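Progress report, Aim 2. The chain analyzed during this reporting quarter is listed below.
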Amino acid sequence: MNMTDVAARGLILLGCGKMGSAMLKGWLRSGLPPKSVWVIDPHPSAWLKEQGVHIGADLPANPAILIIAVKPQMMKAALPDVKALGNGETLAISIAAGTPIKIFEAMLGDQTPIVRAMPNTPAAVGRGITALIGNANVKPEDMDLAEALLLSIGQTVRLDNEGQMDAVTAVSGSGPAYVFHLVETLAAAGEAEGLPADLAMQLAKATVGGAGALAEDSDDTPTQLRINVTSPNGTTQAALEVLMDPEAGFPPLLRRAVAAAANRSRELADE
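Predicted structure tokens for the chain:
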């Protein structure tokens, strides 16, 4: 199965919120015909209505792809709409956080090829990263297709087992919120040192965004980049002595934060 097959047989998008919209934008930008897309969403946005896709229409009998992009708490109410597509040739791809493959196998059928994926919100600007893992029914070409679809919103990585998904969720799935909070707190600290609020925020956004791009694009490791910008006994070293404190700095704080997110991901799987 390839993108030509997807265009011919169709793609169903169950849920079209922020992440679903980001993916749809990428697919349409990459050349997927709008008439090859069926969207199921009770509250379609004005943007969605302008894209020329099918909204709330009768579904094709044997679509190539089913994308499940609803929130975990809405899963049991939403999946019956597409249950008839299970146990067939349709590849199901879920981006629902904390929802294990076994839930979809129970609701769609245990012969359904299912890929569980964890994207993150930078997908909205094509800079996301998505981790993928498939069940036993997923063929190598199915995984290749899932990866091709998700490359439209950024990078992809393949996991060795589904158990890794909780840690992935805690690091990259929830991680953008940690970075946004860093921007908030860095700007607030600038204000506390006398900067106007708008200037402090501009500096914080550009610094965090630029440093992230440098970390991703540079041949140097983040550790080396940190060393490069830290002059002995300078201002950066003074700040890093606070941030790298083994008792109260970033290391223990982020370990606790990531552990809390991973634990919550495990709890969601059991709810």
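The beta strands are 11-14, 37-40, 54-55, 65-68, 91-94, 114-118, 128-134, 154-158. The chain has two domains: 3-165, 175-270. These observations will guide the mutagenesis work planned for the next reporting period.
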